[in-house]
Design brief:
Order of helices and strands: EHHEEEE
Strand content: 25-35%
Oligomer: single chain
Shape: globular
Strand order of the largest sheet: 1-5-4-3-2
């Protein structure tokens, strides 16, 4: 399955505020996921967080996504402990 990760304007702004080490880790993780046979070993379901449907853990960060067809729209990203508040 060919998937795409697309940043919203909000998530892109948050991404741009991150240190380069975080940016690099996010890109590395997304590239790694795209190469896997079963991407859902790395992309977990979210419940009761609409419009978000999935989450991805990247080191100390959490990416919150919405699945649309074969695309994952990254709608938010932040520290793992603070993102759900």
């Amino acid at each position: 399955m060919q998937i795409k990760f697309i940043f919203t304007k909000k998530s892109e702004n948050l991404f741009n505020k991150l240190d380069n080490i975080y940016k690099e880790r996010i890109f590395d993780k997304l590239k790694y996921i795209k190469k896997q046979d079963n991407i859902f070993d790395y992309i977990k379901n979210l419940e009761n967080m609409l419009p978000a449907t999935h989450r991805i853990r990247v080191w100390k960060l959490r990416l919150i996504c919405k699945k649309e067809n074969n695309n994952f729209i990254i709608i938010n990203l932040w520290n793992r402990g603070d993102i759900y508040k």
